[in-house]
Batch of 2 targets.
Target 1
Amino acid sequence: MPADPTPVTSTGRCHLDSAAPDVTAAGGDAGSVSVLVAVLGFALLLMLGLVVDGGRQLIAYRRAANDAEQAARAGAGALNPAGLRTGTYTLDPAAATAAARRYLSASQPGGQITASSITASSITVTGNTVAVTVTLRRTTTFLAAVGITGVNATGRGRAQLVHGVAAEEP
């Protein structure tokens, strides 16, 4: 006849007679799951930060390039009025620089705190070519938790004055 599996209460405690080992008596595994969950949670948060802030960084690079290209186009439209009367198409360097700067200042939302803003720009007019470099400062969301509060994105644009209907003319 098999042994009786019912508990025996001799000292007020319940004791089951079983052959299962007591893992807490060995003391090796207590709390190890908590540490694993904490480490994996931090790693997942870091990965989420890289995905979100990395995606926003790519958007900032594209915006910097767009702003630079559009500012260069705006500058390349500033013709020298004296040359138009003689048929010589040249840029007015001061007007080209001013037009590019106007575009860059208009591309920023006025009076608002933004997540990204133009921190530096350079405009160069050489002959009939306008070159613009724009640097945006982008604040981070998740990566700020590990000390990376912002990243820079730089874009460059060039525009050249050409004229002609079917093809470029000298």
Note: The mean pLDDT is 80.
Target 2
Amino acid sequence: MSDSMSADVTFRSRRWVRPEDLNAHGTLFGGSLLRWIDEEAAIYAIIQLGNSRAVTKYISEIDFVSSARQGDLIEMGLRATAFGRTSLTMRAEVRNMITRERILTIEKIVFVGLDDHGQPIPHGYTDITYERDRLPHHHGLMRTEDRSTADQVLAGSNREADTGCDHLQ
């Protein structure tokens, strides 16, 4: 098994496995882990899309290969793999920091940014940001300067990014 998380992981968080996270067999309940992954992916998508109304659209096959027990520390890693016109696709990997074993991988998690009416909205981004915060300042809407930049990008390109995700809108 892997003793370290992939070098290309761009967002990491850690959790401590507690009694309320266990199944009837005394190991980490898969539903708890999936809830944590979805929450962390949502945070990452909100930051990268600049939209607090980013929602889970799709989660691919989940490959559980080991587990964790009470008291173990787990590390979740996410990596953006593609930007669509309205979406962000990521890959997730989780490992047990105590045993150093991989717990699971999810090859594709897709989030879509929505407008005030619940409709997909173009975000205008094509790459990951580390240098500035894309979080909007007011009620889930992009900041004015980000919106105008996104509008310019969309008007200038008049194309959809071909990521294989936009058909999921």
Note: The helical segments are 30-49, 144-157.
